Amino acid sequence: MTFDNIRIVLVNTSHPGNIGGVARAMKNMGLSRLVLVEPRQYPDEQATWRAAGALDVLEQAVVCSTLDEAIADCQFVVGTSARERRIPWPLLDPRRCAEEVASRAGQEQVALLFGREDRGLTNEELQRCNLHLNIPSDPNYSSLNLAMAVQIVCYELRMLQLGGGLPAQAEAQWDAPFSTGDNMERFYEHLEETLIGIGFLDPVAPRQLMTRLRRLYSRLRLDEMELNILRGILTETQKYIPKPARPPQDGSQEG
Ligand code: SAH
Q1: What is the distance in A from the centroid of ligand 1 to the CA of 213?
Q2: What pTM was computed for the model?
Q3: pLDDT by residue (tens digit) across 137-196?
Q4: What residues are in contact with ligand 1 under a 6 Å CB criterion?
Q5: Which residues face 34 on adjacent strands?
Q6: What spacing in Å lies between the alpha carbon of 242 and ligand 1's midpoint?
Q7: Nearest CA to ligand 1 atom 4
């Protein structure tokens, strides 16, 4: 197994020292692709200092302004979280998660997302993920330092690599590539627009409908062909949506 298709994405990190610590944790375990989404203070000498001998990882880090940009081409996205969120998502510990990641990283682009030191990942960011990962720490004090959390996750990948105990690449034979994050976002926009159009989704009181639909589709993991079929169905459905009454033409109103 190579780690070439696996990227570690740090979202909106506050402390540059942690960014350096993450670079080091990654390189120790043989990973090298670091993506920084809107780091609050970067580049910074504290990052350089904490990276120690992993400066190359830091220097090759890609800086993005949005999470969308960071995962646009990814087919499998894992979000890490220290606590359960309101709508539970498929959740694994680092060991099981490493197996999932390893079984996909041969063919697919995989991203592992890590959140802000103070608030973690937002619900919206976690809803962009196929899977959530939780390090089963003591519930009385569950939140680890960012770089240490990255260390544990990368260590499990390393163990799997060394043990050679890779799960069979179950999806190697699949007949179409899995959808990227980018295409899934466009699908969700289309779906939401259609559901509003047919009156199934009330934009004034959307409740958790889109969240639940996101969970459904990310659990299934659509391939590009399936996604095109669904997009086609939405397009045809939209043709049945009555057009809103036209506003009166200029001059047609009484003065
Ligand atoms: N207070 C935040 C914790 C932020 S810790 C929260 O409740 O989510 C910073 C980041 O480290 C988290 O976003 C996550 O990426 C990682 N992390 C820390 N502890 C973790 C744990 N127990 N399991 C998984 N990830 C963890």
Answers
A1: 25
A2: 0.89
A3: 999 999 999 999 999 999 999 999 998 766 555 556 789 999 999 999 999 999 999 999
A4: 80-83, 114-115, 117, 119-121, 133-135, 137, 142-144, 146, 149
A5: 8
A6: 47
A7: 120
- CATH number (3.40.50.2000, 1.10.8.590, 1.10.510.10, 2.40.420.20) of 181-238 reads 1.10.8.590
Q: CATH number of the domain at 6-165, out of 3.40.630.10, 3.40.50.300, 3.40.1280.10, 3.90.420.10?
A: 3.40.1280.10
- Encode pLDDT of 62-73 as tens digits: 999 999 999 999
Give the residue extent of every domain in the chain: 6-165, 181-238
**18, 26, 34, 81: which to mutate for ligand 1, most atoms within 8 A of CB?**
81
